[in-house]
Design goal:
UDP N-Acetylglucosamine Acyltransferase, domain 1, Udp N-acetylglucosamine O-acyltransferase, Domain 2, 26% strand, elongated
């Protein structure tokens, strides 16, 4: 174990023998850190925080600190982080609250760039990119392979679908559907098209992307259709396309409402 002599580590913390800890880092009671994880200088790992293997935790990060929720009364909540994540400098990740899941969860292979904030009870999947300054309110769910541009703020309880791409400096107050590109500030936000580049990188074939494009035109570019009419037509005109079924179900499961205002296809 490579621990800088200025680091402060609680005897009750559990660190794998291969963990590296930089200068002036603080690791408190209740922390568990897996193999080959690197903790940068001045980082704070607080509370009941579990961090998996091969993570890189940047300088001045704060992980597992109390939520910014006035209802929180120091209940025993936690943060759970998977494997192979890169969490850059000044990122803050707060633990959960008793009023929800009691845990903030981050999956595997994610990149959280500098100054990202992940509030209490958020759930992040795998292979997600959060660019500099992204701010997540509490209780947000982000599905795998989503990419969120810099200085984006997302309202609490929102959901971001898989392979969604959110342009920088957007303000999100509704759910963002999977597989699409969106940009804009709150009421001005628009769905601009299918995230073809992300889907190709994810291994989707041309026919599937074509079917999603057809569904996009029905759902997002035909405002004269009621939402349920558009969803049913999308299913009818793209039979046996599983991503279209996923897209339709995302709308039907939403509690906050889904951004539907469309723009021109890119």
């Amino acid at each position: 174990m490579k621990i800088h002599p200025t680091a402060v580590i609680s005897p009750a913390a559990q660190l794998h023998e291969s963990v590296t800890v930089g200068p002036y880092a603080v690791i408190e009671d209740g922390a568990t850190i897996g193999a080959d994880t690197e903790i940068g200088s001045h980082a704070l790992i607080s509370g009941r925080t579990t961090i998996g293997a091969r993570n890189t935790i940047g300088p001045f990060t704060c992980i597992g600190t109390p939520p910014q929720d006035l209802k929180y009364k120091n209940e025993p909540t936690e943060v759970v982080i998977g494997d192979d994540n890169i969490i850059r400098e000044y990122v803050s990740i707060h633990r959960g609250t008793a009023g929800d899941r009691k845990v903030t969860t981050i999956g595997n292979n994610n990149l959280l760039m500098a100054y990202v904030h992940v509030a209490h009870d958020c759930v992040l999947g795998d292979h997600i990119v959060l660019a500099n300054g992204v701010t997540l309110g509490g209780h947000i769910h982000i599905d795998s392979k989503a990419i969120i541009g810099g200085i984006v703020a997302i309202h609490q309880f929102s959901r971001i679908g898989a392979y969604a791409y959110i342009g920088g400096m957007s303000g999100i107050n509704k759910d963002i559907p999977p597989y699409v590109i969106v940009s804009g500030m709150r009421r001005q936000i628009r769905v601009l098209g299918i995230n073809r580049v992300g889907l190709k990188r994810g291994g989707y074939d041309d026919e599937t992307i074509l079917q999603l494009g057809r569904a996009y035109k029905i759902i997002f570019r035909k405002p004269e259709l009621l939402l349920e009419e558009a969803l049913e037509r999308a299913l009818t005109e793209t039979p046996d396309c599983e991503p279209v079924k996923t897209l339709v179900q995302f709308f039907r499961d939403s509690k906050r409402g889904v951004v539907r205002k469309g723009g021109d296809e890119e």
